[in-house]
Amino acid sequence: MNETAISSQPARQDVSDVTTSNRRGRRRSTPMWTIRGWLTQRTYWTLAAVGLAVPLGCWTMLTALGTVNRVFLPSPGDVAHRLLTWFSNDDLVADIGISCFRVIAGWALSAVLALPLGLLIGTFRTVQALLEPLTDFVRYMPAVAFIPLVMLWVGIDEGAKVAIIFIGTFFQMVLMVAEDVRRVPMAQIEAAQTLGASRAEVIEKVIIPSSKPALLDTLRITMGWAWTYLVVAELVAANSGLGYAIIKAQRFLQTDKIFAGILLIGVIGLGMDQAFRLLHRLAFPYLYARS
Amino acid sequence: MTLRIKLLLMTLLALGLVRSPGAQATVKVGVSDWTGWVAWYVAQDQGYFRKYGADVKLVWFANYSDSIAALSTGQLDANSQTWSDTLGPLAKGLPLKVVLVNDNSAGNDALLVGPKIKTFAELRGHKVALEQYSISHFVLYTALARNGLKPNDVTVVNLAAGDAAAAFMSGGVDAAVVWNPWISQIEKSGKGTPLFTSAQMPGLIPDLLVAQARAVQTQRKDLVGMIRAWFDAVAFIRAQPERAVAIMSHVVSMSPEQYRVFLPGTRFFDASANQQAFDAHNPQALVNVAPTIAAFLLSNKLIDGQPDAARAIDRSVLDEALSRGGAPASASITR
Amino acid sequence: MNAISCRAVHKVFGTGVRKVTALENICLDIREGEFVTLVGASGCGKSTLLRTVAGLEVHSAGEIYAYGSPVRGPGAERAMVFQNYSLYPWLTVMANIKFPRQLAAHIRNRTSAEVEVASGRADALLQLMGLEQVADAYPSQLSGGMQQRVAIARALMARPRILLMDEPFGALDAQTREVMHDLILHVCALERCTVLFVTHDVEEAIYLGQRVVLMAPRPGRIDSTYEVPLPSSRAVEMKHSAQFLALKSQVVERIRDTSGLRTDLELLQRLAKRAG
Predict the structure, then answer these.
(1) How many structural domains comprise chain C?
(2) For chain B, what is the mean pLDDT?
(3) Does B65 lie at the interface with A, CB-CB under 8 angstroms?
(4) Which top CATH class is B26-104+204-332?
(5) What rounded mean pLDDT belongs to chain C?
(6) In the CATH hierarchy, which top-level class contains the domain B109-200?
(7) Which of chain A's termini has less CB crowding within 10 Å, N or C?
(8) CA B37 from centroid of its chain's CA atoms
(9) What is the DSSP string of A178-246?
(10) Tell me, what's the pLDDT at A16?
(11) Per-residue pLDDT for A1 more than 90?
């Protein structure tokens, strides 16, 4: 049988394409600058390395010139040195550990509640009408304003920090989950219905598996947001953690420690993000299959 | 646009961006919610700044810590902050000068305990809520040291002053170190009594006017005027406390009745008290209490190295304020 | 008993000023085993009628019966094949085909013999559709024609008595479509299912159907019906026969008449003058 392959992959531009000149002697756009073009792995990682190295280089140069007071802009060397002393003298590992625990606990609690709730909101208009306006409203309330209430209702232990991170993450997550669920193509749902699926079967066998890749992405993105609430959460009766260390360093102008703390959070966040992406590739091979 | 016009515009822009040194006449002074500093508004309200030719702009900070950072980063010419919070930037070598003592906390900071705790011995092993590394922490540290306890004998729960008071009132902790208005709130509720107050540690919590070294050079006239205005304000507060309370309570949006309780806990420093504070022979002078405070900061690894306190204390501005035209007439009114 | 029976079916969308009558007084009977095609200009309601029979839309008035039972919603006995995007991307081709087996509607009273028969059926459908090579591939790796074959196989897995098809070959190129025509005729003859097939391609409608029902728009209604004068087993050469071509031109002209498009010579001349 003669079939024409309708590939779902975008047309690839071979990087080794020779650039051609048109009539006026100007070069047509090179493959690197083609819209939605394609790069080799090597080119991509080279550019990424440049993208990270250039700001680092500028930072080093700026501090070497001495135009800004060392107190307000520590050099990369100062920051690295502070990281080492933090590790050897101030229990950096414990700080990282407790902060990771707080963020992950708050985010996980959010997920456990937001996934089923978002699923219901995205599937049933009645639930959406009941809950979405309320969620939309609460979403705008700043988590930091909840601190006194959290202390009253939850106390001043780890629960309070986890609660703050929960408040900051949950409401956004619910709405994003609902959105992911709503994006399941209607044809997939109707196909199941015309095959005899009951309502519960449609939810279990079509809506959930169909939205899983988007849900994992939502979890990855909301993990990032959860991290941004760490400093707020560690305002409540904390005496350890990365956020706490940053707050304390702010009070006493230990800017090298502030930099160290912020950069560390960035690196941890990046690591978690990459882990999620890897999980996505492993869990959903059908999205990455080449025809 | 022709090249000439472009050049003209660029020059004007550049001139606008370049500020000639000394062109700033107004002294920007940070103020936050502490009785001794809110009193600056009395001076402003009664026209004392104008009277002494001081071009002053009071900048209000809802968050005290932000004002410290603003001074350190050069956004302010001077700020109202405590001695302990000044030692930190000094240890980093920032060019700051102490030019005036507004007051000493004499009861406006206190360690409050619940009904179960009657003595320091009973405090052992309990949780104390306070803002870690702040004045409150220093008060606790001093209180423990004077009563035979070590810092490890209690568990510090790190909460901002308002949150610490809330935690104490809801029973989450058995003790708290806070400042007013929370002290009076807790006392009024009947849930706690003070076990130790700043009145028992005179000289150790001075509240100061700290200026940039360059401001002392280029805006000396305004600073001198400010100091003279300050002594007038202190006299006014002593002579007409009700009117002073009315002015100050308005600044922080409280009622005068609520604000009145703060006055007794604040020992305002007039001219003679200031002279004593700047006199190195006095055991409670700024320079002599600095080591005690620095020890607290160092033991908690909040500063690296010893700050040069002596160099930061500049009594010349005070002397100049008192010498011109003699001491203000109101200084002779004793209370 | 008819496989499908529509009695005075009305379907209205919207209310008030924006009310649209998609279907008006539809009366249609389809016998068991019949292959009926629905054609018409765009907006005539053929897809709406199909979806209403499937139970995906609720009719506003009238009655629809499938084998004597009133249609109140979708059901396994009326399987539908959509134009595209209905395959499950997380399942392989084989898993997609076997999908109906997981559903409670098909699990009742499963003896081991029935289970044997069922998995044999999946393999048979796979072979029937020529999909053996790609049994473990994902839908995203297949061409459009192959994806539709999987969709049809999946629908047939459920052993539906009625097969509803909504322009299933609309997104395919001409060559693939021709192949699919013969395939679908072959399969439906084997399975002996009743088929209601919606298309805008008149040739396809005549080639596949035993009866062609023409619908007209605004409001959507059945305009006319044509019996296809071709033998039941079709061959490609029949597309060139005189009867085929005559019927085709008749249907095409009728569609044009009902569509509201006019080729007004005067109007065209006026336009040409303005452009010229």
Answers:
(1) 1
(2) 87
(3) yes
(4) alpha beta
(5) 89
(6) alpha beta
(7) N
(8) 7
(9) HHHHHTS-HHHHHHHHHTT--HHHHIIIIIHHHHHHHHHHHHHHHHHHHHHTHHHHTTSS-SSSHHHHH
(10) 41
(11) no
Q: Could you tell me if B92 lies within 8 Å of chain A, comparing CB atoms?
A: yes
d(CA C51, CA C75) in angstroms, rounded, equals: 12
- CB–CB of B173 and A156 under 8 A? yes
In this prediction, residue B325 carries a pLDDT of 52
Q: Which residues contact C170 (CB under 8 A, 6 or more apart)?
A: C83, C199, C200
Inform me whether the pLDDT recorded for A167 exceeds 80: yes
B219, B5 Cβ separation under 8 angstroms:
no
Here the CATH number for the domain that contains residue C270 is 3.40.50.300
* Residue-wise pLDDT tens digits, C227-265: 999 988 888 889 899 999 999 999 999 998 888 766 677
Determine phi and psi for B307, rounding to 5 degrees.
Answer: -80, 150
Q: Where do the domains of chain A lie?
A: 78-288
C141 to chain A: which residues are within 8 Å by CB? 289-291
Confidence of residue A126 (pLDDT cuts 50, 70, 90): very high
Average pLDDT over residues A269-274: 94
Separation in Å, CA C224 to CA A159, C28, C65: 72, 11, 21
Task: Report the chain A residue with the minimal C-alpha distance to residue B302.
Answer: A252
For A90, nearest residue in chain B (alpha carbons): B301
Q: Tell me, what's the pLDDT at C228?
A: 93
> Hey, of A252, A254, A257, A258, which one would you mutate to test binding to chain B, going by the most B CBs within 10 A of its CB?
A252
More confident residue, A155 or B245: B245
Distance of alpha carbon A199 from alpha carbon A182, whole angstroms = 15
In the structure, do chain C and chain B come into contact, i.e. share 3 or more CB pairs under 8 Å? no
Best residue in A70, A149, A247, A253 for a mutation probing chain B (most B CBs within 10 Å): A253
Asked if B251 and B58 touch (Cβ cutoff 8 Å), the reply is no
Computed from CA positions of residues C102, C108, C111, C114, in that sequence, does the dihedral angle turn out positive or negative? negative
Class of the CATH-defined domain A78-288? mainly alpha
